[in-house]
Amino acid sequence: MNDAASLALTFATSAAIGLLVGLERERNPRAKAGLRTFALIAVLGSATALLAQATDSGWVPGAGLLAIGVAIAGAHLVDQETRPDDFGTTTVIAALLVFVLGAINVFGYRLLAVAVGIGMTALLHFKVELEGAAQRLTPVDIRSMLQFGALSAVILPLLPDRAYGPYGVLNPFHIWLMVVLISGVSLAGYVAWRLTLARKGLLLTGLLGGVVSSTATTLVTARQVRAATQSTTSALAVILLANAAMLVRVLVIIAIVAPGLWWSGACALIPAALLALPIALWRLKQGAEEIRGVDGYRNPTNLLTALVFGAFYAAVLILGAWLSDAVGARGLYVLAAVSGLTDVDAITLSSLRLFSTGALERPVAVAAIVIGVGANLLLKSIIVFVVGGRRIGSETALAFLPSLLALAGGLVLLRALA
Questions:
Q1: Which of 77, 109, 186, 369 lies most in the core, judged by the most C-beta atoms within 10 Å?
Q2: Phi and psi of 267, rounded to 5°?
């Protein structure tokens, strides 16, 4: 592409970014800049950047940025309708950003400029939804996000990325990275659950509950049945959906941590999840009028919880490596069954880590994960029976049976293919 054509494409892209943002601002009659103004601001940003290149002076775009800010802010200040409530702040910032996007487009960051332009337009458009979401979040929710930021952005970079301990499986950075991964997945589910709290139904309660904590969802739902605040039909739908989501969650973790094991894990976990869905959807249809949800979730990024999980994960790593070396695969399978009773994530991440370091073969690593998941489902059947009563316990065990058989079939298949 020759220089003239490239320059024309650059200015056309800047104008398109301005038109996109201006289209959103045009919908608001109180905004002092609309479709044409934002397009001109973006083109002006590109023109000043081009002039800065030609004159080798950074003052030109700086002066243009200042002029745009003063012009848009002044238009709002002189308007008696917009001055009292500081209405024009968003438009002023948007205009300045559009100017900057037009400028960086000239400097070769075209894709970045387009992506930011689309993102800021979406941010401006969904003002009502974002404000509603902010109002639904509690101080505890905000604290959860801040704690996750501390876990990921403060603690993680400070940890050494070296192997320590027996069998060289204790890498502080990797262990905490897995803590951040699990906390992030749980926090995402928790925030989504909180944002849909006012209008959630059984489907969202079950699916998001499985992402946050399938064990907590199962336990609290069983308690609701015992307290007669939830029917057996709707409770069973929530429990089955939560544990189907848990199976998908495990697959997502495998895809992130050890993509090479995903297909092997999918052979057992996907059929188990699919076999749970028909019963869950049937129960969901029967209890469709009920909208009670699970309100017993705790902060998923609590520092103490993170430390406990990290210690448990490290212990499973050492025990897994030792049992695999001293006893063989059978010892690891026993560990998987025991640890899976309390936490599927720990045995999943440990197996994936040991596979990545070469300490476990592919069939053994996947089998350990499948055994841990199966043990977890068995324990939940007992929890529901004890906490919720005989009826919901029996129906839960019967509903889990197809999934457990699918997991067993997956183990047989893995052994045959080994």
A1: 369
A2: -60, -30
Least confident interval from 39-53, 94-108, 222-236? 222-236
Q: Indicate whether this model's pTM tops 0.90.
A: no
Backbone angles phi, psi at 298, to 5 degrees: -110, 170
* Total count of residues recorded for the chain: 418
Query: In this structure, are residues 331 and 175 in contact, taking their beta carbons and an 8 Å threshold?
Result: no
- How far is Cα 331 from Cα 323, in angstroms, rounded to an integer? 5
Phi, psi dihedral angles at 160 (to 5 degrees): -70, 140
State pLDDT tens for residues 255-312: 999 888 888 888 888 888 888 888 877 877 776 545 455 555 555 666 777 788 788 8
Secondary structure in 3-state letters for the chain: CCHHHHHHHHHHHHHHHHHHHHHHHHCCCCCCCCHHHHHHHHHHHHHHHHHHHHHCCCHHHHHHHHHHHHHHHHHHHCCCCCCCCCCCHHHHHHHHHHHHHHHHHHCCCHHHHHHHHHHHHHHHHCHHHHHHHHHHCCHHHHHHHHHHHHHHHHHHHHCCCCCECHHHCECHHHHHHHHHHHHHHHHHHHHHHHHCHHHCCHHHHHHHHHHHHHHHHHHHHHHHHHCCCCCHHHHHHHHHHHHHHHHHHHHHHHHHHCHHHHHHHHHHHHHHHHHHHHHHHHHHHHCCCCCCCCCCCCCCCCHHHHHHHHHHHHHHHHHHHHHHHHCCHHHHHHHHHHHHCCCHHHHHHHHHHHHHCCCCCHHHHHHHHHHHHHHHHHHHHHHHHHHHCHHHHHHHHHHHHHHHHHHHHHHHHHHHHC
pLDDT of residue 86: 46
Q: How far apart are CA 246 and CA 296, in angstroms?
A: 17
Is-contact 250 366, C-beta < 8 A? no
CA–CA separation, 413 and 370 (whole Å): 12
- Residue 190 contacts residue 144 (beta carbons within 8 Å): yes
How far is residue 27's CA from residue 40's CA, in Å, rounded to a whole number?
18
